[in-house]
Structure to design on (696 residues):
């Protein structure tokens, strides 16, 4: 590996019409000691999703530091009626906090007190498609510029809201929710434009990113990520190029390449970087004669003004394990072999940490940050993975493979990482979760897919190491220190000029670490599982640390699965030095369970129902093994009443609750299938009932 040396960044607080710092790689060498920060101006706001265009998630504020962090206390809390918790990054501008919850509801609060200023509900629909029903229940944040707040909705709209009044200014339909598109990602802003991607690659939708005029909502450009039907013509030269990497008669019907989370903008290069996802079907099905399948699982750079293709780097060619590269991309500068390089850092789902030249897309270096067995490394000359042939299980005699890391959760998911120019380290929330992949018949998609199984909840050894916080050195491509968590999908990360690292955990604690050593300096019970990242801001000379709590998305599903916890209340918690506030006593969240119906099905039917529950996508909303925990918008089916069970076929096959987001499945499931599913749910209800009786 080449010897790398770091140019630590001195950030220039340059105001722009985008409402925040425009720097993405402006540099000046800082000599040792590395813990010293020179000439870093105070910043009072958190104006952009990653705080600056480089998406570093680093706060220049150092009032709270290693010497006094023990004096940190609760300044205020605000209960937010977010039934599915928080995934959003708060935006803080001029003393106002802007944050979104599930269903794309946006709140504006006073940053001094937490008092509500206004609330905007876009009244999204959940009955437009399978993916719309799922992804519409969570939201990862807003963008704010020029007195407008922008939010993407689960029914495919981009909405502009007056930042002062909470009134809608305009909205546009940016994708078709009836074709399995949705939006859960935070918009990004730059050059007077709002950039928005979409979700849905899991369900066969073709990913694309759109740019809109921030004032008027007019479409400026659109860039597609995977090619469509050649008979209808390609949208760009880039799509014609990408089409050559696909084979078969109808590869486009599998879609893919959605930008469901991350974009980064470099104003100096005028490039927008797009992180893309995989698609639903195995590579052997969607592209049977081979090919890399561009631009699945790729980083793609486009001109921010025109949307024209500039370069791409594909992290997982011919992807087949759900190893999305839709994860956060950090923009910074490194000195490599004596030359200053503008680089992009990414830790996608596949388990490798990448350093890429963000001007050209050239591969610079990579190394695995968790245990990986699908590849033995990344070729230093080509930048391509050196694959383990056994990982492509559909080609093997065994037709199965125990994959590390599990693709759906990945080694790193959407939970943001942070880069500190004080230490030169990236603080990365990682997962070490394996899973078994086996060939199986798809319920929802054409062609073969894989059945995947996570860690056994009784495997205490595996559970003790599946969640990590890593301090990763992008120069040596190695961990400086790490902290083990007992659960996966812990919260996003913040680092600060106070030489601190902040992270909430899935177990419901807020931790603050020494950024250089990983020593735990402070922790507090949050009464709720944490997924969202903290931010920091200052008002009247006082620094605040703001943490949204309440599990959302996969965290809300997995927390009851892996521990005796519940997602907990959804709140904003604001901390400051000398804060003396107290949370109210924790409440009991689980209600009394109705007595389950008698189990009349055979053991074979129950097993079949379990398989259908997994393969028909039921667990995506209702939790692994139908264990969700009470208090989510999808129902924990173990709590169904006898009256609700009488409506079972009408709900599952007839779509009687489609308006509430429960799709009808009669196109995929027979009445016999439906009854098997019900038998499995009744069996799980009996297990919960017996556990509760034993506890009493």
């Amino acid at each position: 590996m080449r010897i790398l040396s770091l140019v630590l960044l001195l950030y220039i607080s340059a105001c722009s019409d985008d409402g925040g710092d425009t720097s993405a790689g402006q540099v000046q060498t800082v000599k040792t000691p590395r813990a010293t920060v020179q000439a870093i101006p105070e910043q009072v706001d958190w104006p952009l999703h990653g705080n600056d265009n480089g998406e570093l998630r680093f706060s220049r504020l150092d009032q709270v530091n290693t010497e006094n962090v023990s004096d940190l206390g609760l300044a205020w809390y605000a209960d937010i009626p977010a039934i599915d918790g928080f995934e959003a990054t708060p935006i803080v501008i001029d003393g106002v906090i802007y944050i979104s919850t599930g269903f794309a509801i946006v709140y504006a609060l006073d940053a001094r007190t937490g008092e509500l200023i206004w609330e905007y509900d876009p009244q999204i629909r959940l009955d437009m498609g399978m993916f719309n029903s799922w992804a519409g229940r969570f939201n990862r944040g807003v963008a704010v510029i020029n007195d407008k707040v922008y939010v993407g909705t689960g029914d495919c709209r981009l909405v502009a809201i007056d930042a002062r009044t909470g009134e809608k200014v305009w909205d546009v339909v940016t994708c078709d929710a009836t074709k399995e598109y949705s939006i859960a990602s935070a918009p990004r802003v730059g050059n007077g434009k709002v950039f928005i991607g979409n979700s849905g690659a899991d369900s066969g939708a073709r990913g694309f990113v759109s740019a809109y005029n921030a004032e008027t909502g007019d479409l400026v450009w659109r860039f597609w990520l995977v090619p469509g039907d050649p008979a209808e013509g390609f949208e760009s030269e880039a799509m014609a190029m990408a089409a050559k990497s696909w084979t078969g008669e109808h590869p486009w019907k599998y879609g893919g390449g959605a930008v469901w989370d991350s974009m980064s903008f470099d104003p100096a290069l005028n490039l927008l970087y797009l992180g893309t996802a995989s698609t639903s079907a195995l590579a052997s099905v969607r592209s049977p004669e081979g090919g890399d399948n561009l631009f699945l699982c790729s980083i793609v750079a486009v001109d921010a003004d025109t949307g024209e293709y500039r370069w791409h780097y594909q992290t997982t060619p011919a992807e087949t394990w759900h190893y999305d590269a839709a994860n956060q991309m950090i923009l910074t500068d490194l000195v490599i072999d004596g030359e200053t390089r503008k680089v992009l850092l990414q830790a996608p789902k596949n388990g490798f940490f990448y350093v890429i030249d963000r001007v050209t897309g050239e591969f610079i270096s990579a190394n695995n940050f968790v245990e990986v067995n699908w590849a033995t490394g990344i070729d230093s000359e080509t930048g391509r993975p050196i694959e383990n042939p056994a990982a492509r299980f559909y080609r093997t005699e065994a037709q199965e493979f125990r994959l590390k890391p599990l693709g759906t959760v990945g080694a790193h998911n959407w939970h943001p990482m942070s880069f500190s120019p004080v230490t030169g380290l990236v603080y990365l929330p990682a997962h070490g979760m394996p899973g078994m992949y086996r060939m199986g018949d798809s319920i929802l998609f054409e062609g073969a897919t894989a059945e995947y199984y996570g860690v056994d909840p009784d495997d205490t050894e595996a559970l003790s190491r599946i969640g990590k916080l890593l301090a990763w050195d992008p120069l040596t491509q190695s961990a400086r220190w790490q902290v083990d968590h007992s659960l996966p999908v812990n919260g996003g990360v913040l680092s600060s000029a106070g030489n601190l690292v902040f992270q909430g955990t899935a177990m419901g604690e807020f931790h603050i670490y020494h950024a250089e050593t990983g020593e735990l300096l402070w922790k507090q019970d949050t009464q709720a599982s944490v997924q969202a990242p903290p931010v920091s801001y200052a008002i009247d000379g006082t620094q605040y640390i703001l943490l949204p709590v309440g599990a959302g998305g996969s965290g809300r599903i997995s927390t009851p699965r892996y521990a005796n916890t519940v997602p907990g209340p959804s709140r904003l918690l604001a901390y400051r030095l000398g804060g003396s506030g107290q949370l109210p006593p924790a409440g009991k969240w689980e209600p009394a369970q109705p007595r389950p119906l008698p189990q009349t099905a055979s053991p074979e039917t129950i097993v079949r129902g379990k398989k259908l529950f997994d393969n028909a996508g039921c667990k995506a909303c209702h939790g692994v093994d139908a264990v969700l925990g009470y208090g989510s918008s999808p129902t924990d089916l173990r709590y169904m009443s006898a009256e609700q069970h009488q409506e079972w076929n009408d709900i599952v096959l007839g779509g009687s609750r489609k308006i509430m987001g429960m799709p009808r499945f009669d196109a995929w499931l027979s009445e016999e299938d439906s009854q098997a599913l019900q038998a499995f749910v009744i069996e799980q209800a009996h297990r919960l009932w017996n556990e509760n009786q034993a506890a009493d």
In short: The CA atoms of residues 184 and 510 lie 25 Å apart. Residues 671-695 form the longest helix (25 residues).
